[in-house]
Amino acid sequence: MSDDGARSAAKGRSLLFHRNFRLLLIGETTSKLGTSMTSVLLPVVAVTTLDASTFMLGLLTAATWLPWLLIGLPAGAWVDQLPRRPVMLCANAVSAVLFASVPVAAWLDVLGIWHLVAVALLAGAAAVFFSTAYSAYLPSLVDRSELMEGNAKLQGGEQAAKVAGPGIGGLVAQSVGSASGLLLDAFSFVVSSVCLLAVRGVEPRPAAKAGRRLSGEISEGLRFVLRDPHVRILTAYGAAVNLALAGYQAVLVVFLVRTVGVDSGALGVLVSCGGVGGIVGGLVAGRLTRWLGTVRGLLVVQLTASPFGLLIPLAQPGPRLALFAVGSVVVLAGVVVCNVIIVSFRQSYCPPEMLGRVTATTLFLNYGTIPLGALLGGALGSLLGARPTMWIVTVALVAANGFLLGAPLRTLRDFPEASRRD
């Protein structure tokens, strides 16, 4: 941990007074804002500039997540063998160049749909390396006791970016064009890199492992995740939640526009409600865990918050639209609290030399259910309709809590600490 981190811990001050953490927070929130804008701008480029079909839009979305399934596991093994900050800087540089290439190609009149797919795929690969290294980097910046606060603030910044990004992206598309607007995302990666370069202190280089094959490194990470009861349960729970949430996202717009009958203005407000809930979750996560404990806090929040999702399928025009707003706010607040607790536990519990592989393995398994959930949600929406599908996915979200109620979590107040394993 850096010297300013030790001083902030000793004084009990907020991590916002911790220079290195503050730089990480500013850089990552800026990058997430750019990414959130691109979630609107890239499909708009495909539709308005290239007249892409629905299939190609689906392919564009799939290309973003496919790298987790293709390189997620080896990326974790590679990250564990390298200093994390240079990996993050390289990933940022690659992403900046990729997104800047779209407006350049548009200006030269050579932009095609396969260019966008390639950008989404390669930027997704860069995101795999960045996310894996980023999760393993925070414990080197702050004290173990500050991980919960740090992750809560980072999650809060990410959720704020998700609320603001789509609206800003829409305004940018109207003012300068969707393709040119992607330059802002490229610039956000530059800001992230500048902040990382300004972080003080030398990150220790991982010890070299002579004679270890990549397959052996990957297998070691998989064994840790599958054999450790705490990590295994949380990974299974995350995969189940992502399956349900991906199905929810697949039918969300159709449900609100065609079934409930909201206009485009109301759609934007309602979709943003979840992000507001995420900000609230980031603000209260630390207090809840100090009051209840990490395990009990996770159980209480999820068992309380996820049933509010059952309000969402009850939404109707008029006052009953509030049911959707309340349901999405509470559910997303619970999801963010859950993310803060689980990520903080993983960072403090896992051996530092394995954190990259454990992170990559859990994300590989968690994100692997997202394409499946999206396909199931779309298929069920076509067969049964949007409202019945909303009932199915929100019930599935509640049912996912069954993983948390199994041994050993239900008997614990707090997750075990790494010091008990050392």
From TrEMBL:
Q: Please state the protein's primary subcellular location.
A: membrane
Q: Which GO terms describe its cellular component?
A: plasma membrane
One MF annotation (Gene Ontology) recorded for this entry: transmembrane transporter activity
Q: What Pfam family does this protein match (any one)?
A: MFS_1
Say yes or no: keyword Cell membrane present: yes
Which keywords accompany this UniProt record? Cell membrane, Membrane, Transmembrane, Transmembrane helix
Q: How does it sit in the membrane?
A: Multi-pass membrane protein
- The superkingdom of the source organism is Bacteria
PANTHER family documented for this protein: INTEGRAL MEMBRANE EFFLUX PROTEIN-RELATED, MAJOR FACILITATOR SUPERFAMILY ASSOCIATED DOMAIN-CONTAINING PROTEIN
- Return the protein name: MFS transporter
Organism of provenance: Streptomyces kanamyceticus
Q: What is the lineage of its organism?
A: Bacteria, Bacillati, Actinomycetota, Actinomycetes, Kitasatosporales
